[in-house]
Amino acid sequence: MPQLLSDIQLDALRELSNIGSGTAATSLSSLVGMPVDVSVPNAIALPLADAVDRAGPAEAEVTAVALPVFGEFDALVLIVMNQPTVDTVCELLGVPTDDEMAASALGEVGNILGGAYLGALATMLGGTVEPRPPELVRDMLGAILASALLASGEDNLALLLESTLRVNGRECSPSFMFVPSAGGLGDILSRLGLGA
Amino acid sequence: MATEAMVRIGELTASRTPGDVLVSIGLGSCIGLALLDPPMTVAGLAHIMLPASPYTEADSPGKYADLAVPALVAEVERRGARRAHLEAVLVGGARMFSFNSGAGLDIGARNEVATREALADLEIPVRCAATGGTNGRTVRVLVEEAAVFVRESGTEPHELYRSRFALEPRES
User: Fold this and answer.
1) Exposed, middle or buried by CB within 10 Å (0-12, 13-18, 19+), for A92?
2) Cβ-based contacts of B98 with chain A (< 8 Å)
3) What residues of B are in contact with residue A147 (Cβ under 8 Å)?
4) Tens digit of pLDDT for each residue in B11-31?
5) Among A44, A178, B120, B171, which residue has the fewest nearby CB atoms (within 10 Å)?
6) Is A8 part of the contact surface with chain B (CB cutoff 8 Å)?
7) How far is residue A54 CA from its own chain's centroid?
8) Where are the beta strands (DSSP E) in B2-86?
9) Would the CB atoms of B26 and A58 count as touching at under 8 Å?
């Protein structure tokens, strides 16, 4: 069923994403010991095919940490990193990129950043969330995103809250994508007092 | 110069133009269904998202396996394909995240099953498939050659299928 969001609702979701990524930026900054900037968040509410197009080149190989969330609102957080970002994160943590340690280090970074992001959201929404263990996927951006959006149970309009962190002076810009489930979105909006 | 026609998620298209290439990029749990009629040089591609439509008539039939298969058959037939010639090739249906697999939620596998069932209903044979696993794929359908190329994430493209009824390849 098509779900149309008002500008006010989109603004509120953008603000939610801003608070989440701001908190994540603080924890990334203390992790790598460098200042971190946050981009203005994007709230993308588009037909699925357009949302996937908007997110970037579909065939680009990226590394993504997926954090499924269950609890009072079901959602999925994806932290998407291109190869330069992966290289920089590994370097800052002192882990060789091609090492097996890299996967577990990146998963842990995703866990910390995702946890910070979700914690802020949960506080804002007045609930608790239980993230499941992070899952590291290295694949085409389009395949990851489309599968994540479909797993959310929405088959028409995709909602994607996107924001990018940037480590000052370094080639390091992990992107956050917050994908609420079809039912989770209604829940989030009504907690913000903006329910239908 | 070959024209690449992008078939995005939920879309379907067909062509009888020699040199045309039908492409779906980044198939994860989605299924890329290629239908080939080599003698008539017609091919079609659907980028299927989900197994079954919640409605009997959807705004875009390409999304759901149960509607996309008959819709794609109609589309290639409209361009001159004959039902008895049709050969199907399936690509995609991966399990990108393991948490999708709980509670019967493996969308990729369900997509493949539903697509095969709909093809069987229309007695269209599946000649070849690159499905399942955990990697995303890109599929290219060469209309004139009645051939299907697949690139799996992190690898080079390779020829998955070429119909033995295909025309001789042209010298380029």
Assistant:
1) middle
2) 135
3) 28-30, 94, 96-97, 100, 107-108, 136
4) 999 999 999 999 999 999 999
5) B171
6) no
7) 15
8) 4-6, 12-15, 21-27, 31-37, 42-48
9) yes
The string of pLDDT tens digits covering residues A78-112 is 899 999 999 988 888 888 887 788 888 888 888 88
What pairs with residue B156 in β-bridges?
none
What is the predicted pLDDT for the residue at B103? 43
For residue B156, the tally of other CB atoms under 10 A from its CB is: 6
Q: Could you tell me if residue B171 is inside a domain?
A: no
Angle between helical axes of B65-78 and B107-121 (0-180°, round to 10)? 50
Q: What domains lie within chain A, and their CATH numbers?
A: 7-191 (3.40.1550.10)
pLDDT of residue A104: 87
CATH code of the domain containing B138: 3.30.1330.200
Give the minimum alpha-carbon distance from A144 to chain B in angstroms, rounded to a whole number: 6
* Tally of domains in chain B: 1
Instruction: Tell me if ipTM is over 0.90.
Output: no
Q: What is the mean pLDDT of the segment spanning B113-117?
A: 98
Is the pLDDT at B101 greater than 50, yes or no? no
**Chain B contact residues (CB < 8 Å to A):** 8-11, 25-30, 49-50, 54, 63, 94, 96-100, 105, 107-108, 135-138, 153-154
**Catalytic residue (one of B12, B30, B94, B142):** B30
pTM here? 0.88
A139: its two tokens:
């694949």
